[in-house]
Model the fold of this input.
Amino acid sequence: MTTSERALEALHAGANSLFRNALEACSIESAFERHIHFEGNLLRRPLGESRGEEASGDLNLKDFRQIFVVAIGKAAVPMLDTLLSRMKRRSGLRGICCSTEVPEKRNWRIRYFAGGHPLPNEDSFAAAKATLSLLRNAKQDSLVIFLLSGGGSALFDLPLDAAITVDDAVVFHQALVGCGAPITEINTIRKHFSAVKGGRLALAAAAATKLSILLPDVPLRSLDTLASGPTLPDHSTVAEVHELLERYKLMEKFTGPVRRFFERGNVPESPGKTSRLAPLFQRLPWVDKEAESGADAALRTEEQAFRNSMIEVLLSSQDLVENARIAAEKAGYFVAVDNQCDDWDYAEAARYLLQRFSELRAEHPRCCLISGGEVTVTLNRTPGAGGRNQQFALACALELGKSPDELLVVFSAGSDGIDGNTRAAGAIADPTTVRRAFAFGYAPEEALARFDACPLFTALGDSVVTGPTGHNLRDLRLLMAEPR
Done:
């Protein structure tokens, strides 16, 4: 191995190490210690953001006859385990947990479901129905704790229209994921499609005290799009949904039942706007007919649903970026953070960050440019094996190949350990990626066009593989350079 090859190998290892150290520093356990902890039956939390008339950071569990816990998302299991390990009060406790898999160690008070991701499955529907059934029992003397993390939009779903099947929902979600829209716009559409999104879980437990503990994989300015906002009021409109459906040419990609749902004139506004949900909700087969009057009452009281409701953000993409910055500075790099390309198309983001990186290197030969958030990919064909991080890395590799003597790497990976339809979290590119790919029989430009970057990076040994991390704090990109 040449000196240059050893130096590049060291940069690969350094980028992997920065990513893993940043993830490790974002521990759910330590975040609970900072934001939510128990003193006996007293749940203490910072004031945070309260939607109640009386802003109080503490909740006394003795004040509640029943406690319900609903955990949804890729981090549902570690969030639930951490919460339950700290709670002494267990009488009257029941709950639902919907994540990517059912854990081996389970609490008998909790019903577990393995929802589908990035596309829903039968358990996604079953978990949503079970949650609506559970929340029908939530009264004024009940406390409902929602644990929400990324991935919940697919893992946990139930269409407003009972004629829409799981297969229809799979096609619906597939079309949204591949349309190239940013996550905030995708989830605007999902909110108006689903019986458990856009504030409707809060509405299902309108009389109860509610605490939503969030681990967002969305911009902090858009917390109501996390898992498509099941517990927060939604201020998007049906008119916006129709505009998005037209802009991204989505209706033609949906099945007949989904098209008919959006074409009819009575698609309900989500809670947070004037609700016309009650008549449609009454017709759903999973609503207990004996409880219809209670459901109607809850649906007519949106103000009550959000009045005694609090939220707490445990961790965010900002924490991941900040921990990466600290680790890079400790390693002796000049560090810059640039999150401007959040929600940009992957190719546009690659061009922007490489240009920014070039300018940074001109003044600081040993530097690290950090970028958080997500890029988007528009699928115009059936994809191969890959995801937005590997697509971004391959786009960068094609540009880096024009300067083969530079000592630098581009790292891009998802904090959840999953990129698209692969088992990789992402990939690392360097100036030799293209040359080595050709030597292995791969055509990088063709792989990029086919959205098929994973086999190429796997063959080169440049895939980033972490396994499921229990996190979902969006993506992290690291552009690192050493002087020659």
Summary: The radius of gyration is 23 Å.
